[in-house]
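hey
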């Protein structure tokens, strides 16, 4: 068991946000950097840049401004937990983030995309009633960790495009 409790990052959201992308909780590299999708092998940023035909952006603050301009918010379904390493399968004692309160504060959010199975499972466990009010999509994880259900970059890209371009 992990000996230290970990916490999610603050949400990246503003009044312009129309799409909320929820991860589970950041991995070790992201937590160390205090950046969403801070693992350079994660497909999140390459997928978004490809969908919006945006060249690579190195600077994290510029990436966040790019998201804001595309009306995309980021957060996590899990607010705190214990986890050894970065695998979602190692998460224990997960406590959810206050997603409902975020949606109440930012009523322009019309769609939610859950980045990966764990994010979607936690969302459904704690916030299934919200699925009647807002469209929620389970997206393939952008994690670089191979798994038996992992899709190729191109397969992920097509599914993510459906959420972001509609």
């Amino acid at each position: 068991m992990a000996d230290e409790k970990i916490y999610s990052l603050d949400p990246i959201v503003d009044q312009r946000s129309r799409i909320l992308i929820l991860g589970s909780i950041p991995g070790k590299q992201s937590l160390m950097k205090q950046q969403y999708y801070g693992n350079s092998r994660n497909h999140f940023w390459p997928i978004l840049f490809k969908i919006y035909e945006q060249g690579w952006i190195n600077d994290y603050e510029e990436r966040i401004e790019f998201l804001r301009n595309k009306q995309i918010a980021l957060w996590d379904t899990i607010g705190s937990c214990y986890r050894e390493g970065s695998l979602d399968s190692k998460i224990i004692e997960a406590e959810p983030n206050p997603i409902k309160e975020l949606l109440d504060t930012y009523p322009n959010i019309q769609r939610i995309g859950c980045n990966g199975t764990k994010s979607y499972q936690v969302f459904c466990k704690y916030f299934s009633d919200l699925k009647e009010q807002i469209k929620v999509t389970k997206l393939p994880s952008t994690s670089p960790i191979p798994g038996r259900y992992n899709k190729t970059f191109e397969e992920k890209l097509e599914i993510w495009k459906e959420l972001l371009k509609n």
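The first strand starts at residue 5 and ends at 7. The chain has a mean pLDDT of 92.
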